[in-house]
Design a protein that fits this description.
Length: 169
């Protein structure tokens, strides 16, 4: 990547395709991929599995741990791609602070209907479709003073990855 953003966070609500795009992007860039969901404490996962939305207080330790992991990966080898909902500006600010570097956020933007359809078809994920509304209500779209791309999430994955690469490389 020739851009100054050496950390890219693929963000959005559940079902947007963050992990799919993040994995493909990291493979294309030849860098580490961090799955944000893997760093959730067991209590958070259980809460979501039961259909209870997380609070800001629930998310804070997770966001700090994730930001620290991004910093570690940067120190160890350069660029890193992460999948993380990063729903609120405060969450993105926390990730930036903990990572100690600028982050490019890529919002995968989809309609509520398509998100619901994707979540209904998903098997084996702890996040139930019943939490989609609360995630959509929580989402604060990135604003002009944030380093962010907003990309239609209904495009083919290869095209989404190409758009990100074009904007960062």
């Amino acid at each position: 990547m020739t851009d100054t953003a050496q950390v890219i966070v693929v963000m959005g609500v559940s079902g947007a395709g963050k992990s799919t795009i993040g994995t493909a992007l990291a493979a294309r860039m030849g860098c580490v991929f961090v799955e944000g969901d893997a760093l959730h404490p067991a209590a958070n996962v259980e809460k979501m599995r039961r259909g209870i939305p997380l609070t800001d207080q629930d998310r804070q330790p997770w966001l700090k741990a994730l930001g620290k992991r991004l910093a570690e990966e940067r120190r160890a080898g350069g660029a890193v791609v992460c999948a993380c909902s990063a729903l609120k500006r405060a969450y993105r600010d926390c990730l930036r602070t903990e990572a100690g570097t600028d982050i490019l956020f890529v919002l995968l933007d989809l309609s509520a209907d398509l998100l619901a359809e994707r979540m209904a078809a998903r098997k084996g994920h702890f996040m139930p479709a019943s939490l989609l509304q609360s995630q959509m209500a929580t989402l604060e779209r990135p604003v002009s003073d944030e380093r962010a791309l907003i990309i239609p999430g209904d495009l083919p994955p290869d095209e989404i990855v190409q758009r990100i690469i074009r904007r960062t490389g």
